[in-house]
Automatic annotation (TrEMBL):
Keywords: Signal. PANTHER family: BLR7088 PROTEIN, COPPER CHAPERONE PCU(A)C. This is Copper chaperone PCu(A)C. Residues 1-20 form the signal peptide. Pfam families: PCuAC (PF04314). It comes from Neptunicoccus cionae. The keyword Signal applies. The keyword Transmembrane does not apply.
Length: 173
């Protein structure tokens, strides 16, 4: 059963940032308690890692499932607490961990699930204007080529958080 909610208000720690976004929540989605639905996309398990004071970058992670019959693409990301947002990929090449910005965004194939996780695909928040504090929520705006734009709340977890899947750490940031 789906229900529609309105995310609105002033979030503590975001200097008066107000968010008003109509989203649909699927309380039965697993493994997280809620999903943000945008068209045929379902976004779950969102989190960011806490940062140290004066740390210039942060990372964000989530799972997106494309329940439709057409491909989509995550083309941009932004948040009010950073001057820039990028979509990155980490990979191993000749026993060396490499990170690169995905200039054309991240493909979300029809009927598939893409996981952004430490050590793999992830969001990079550059030029942080304040620390990401464990226990707070970071509103992040995701823009998809076909589905459009949605603001997703990322729970800020410990600096070494791995998410719900127990994936490798993302200590390079």
């Amino acid at each position: 059963m789906y229900k529609s909610i309105l995310l609105a208000g002033v979030l503590a720690g975001f200097g008066g940032l107000a968010i008003a976004e109509q989203v649909t929540v699927d309380p039965s989605s697993k493994p997280s308690a809620h999903a943000v639905i945008l068209g045929q996309l379902s976004i779950t398990d969102g989190f960011a890692r806490a940062t140290l004071p004066n740390q210039p970058v942060g990372g964000g992670f989530f799972t997106v499932t494309n329940n439709g019959d057409a491909d989509d693409r995550l083309v941009s990301v932004s948040t009010a607490v950073s001057s820039g947002g990028e979509i990155h990929e980490m990979s191993m090449t000749d026993s060396v961990m490499k990170m690169r910005k995905l200039e054309d965004g991240l493909a979300i194939p029809a009927g598939e699930t893409v996981v952004l996780k430490p050590g793999g695909f992830h969001l990079m928040f550059t030029g942080l204007t304040q620390p990401l504090v464990k226990g707070e929520v970071l509103p992040v705006t995701l823009t998809f080529e076909a589905a459009g734009e949605v603001t997703v709340p990322l729970a800020i977890k410990a600096p070494n958080a791995r998410g719900s899947g127990g994936h490798s750490t993302h200590d390079g940031h």
